[in-house]
Amino acid sequence: MDQFDKSIELFIENAGWMAPFFFLILHLIRPFVFLPVVAVCIVGGVAFGFVQGAILSYLGLMLMSAIIYFLLERLPKFHRKMTKLKERIFPDRTLSVGQVMLLRIMPFVHFQLLCFYLMDMTKSFKEYMYYSAIGLTLPAVVYTAFGQSITEFPWYMTLAFLFVLIALFLVIEKYNKTRALHQEN
Asked: What is the pTM of this model?
């Protein structure tokens, strides 16, 4: 994986003015070559610097979200696969928009599945893209700026970071359930 990252970085550096375009294409083909979002954002930070890398990563993730929306809408087989995956990973659970946004920050969480959840929660493409725009800002910035640091953490720091995110996820879930109970009464 490290060698692949270095070859992508070298390719982007040698691409000149076309490098941002190739980087956006990399974001679009990322799911088909099984690259995690964090790896591509790290490459963006290394190749373009923090600001331009974060902006390009954000744009690439937004494009990928839009494409996933249309693929889920137009390809019933893909929709069925995502439904099965959703039932396998989170059976009988409804996630809130806040939880989906928090899961976006966690490395190696299935990007298309989160898009599927968000699509189920929203009523239109415009609303879906609005929540995608908000939810993808933090991962693009965090992975670009701190991605290298996160991957270099000792295993116990990575585990602690993961537990903090899981705890925050569960707090949001409890808050949503409590709020729903109060609204019913």
From this structure: 0.74
Three state DSSP letters for the chain? CHHHHHHHHHHHHHCHHHHHHHHHHHHHHHHHHCCCHHHHHHHHHHHHCHHHHHHHHHHHHHHHHHHHHHHHHHCHHHHHHHHHHHHHHCCCCCCCHHHHHHHHHCCCCCHHHHHHHHHHHCCCHHHHHHHHHHHHHHHHHHHHHHHHHHHHCCHHHHHHHHHHHHHHHHHHHHHHHHHHHHHHC
> 117-121: long-range contacts (C-beta < 8 A, 24 or more apart)?
117/86, 119/68, 119/69, 119/72, 119/73, 121/95, 121/96, 121/97
**pLDDT tens sequence across 118-138:** 998 899 999 999 999 998 998
With a CB cutoff of 8 Å and minimum separation 6, the contacts of 162 are 106
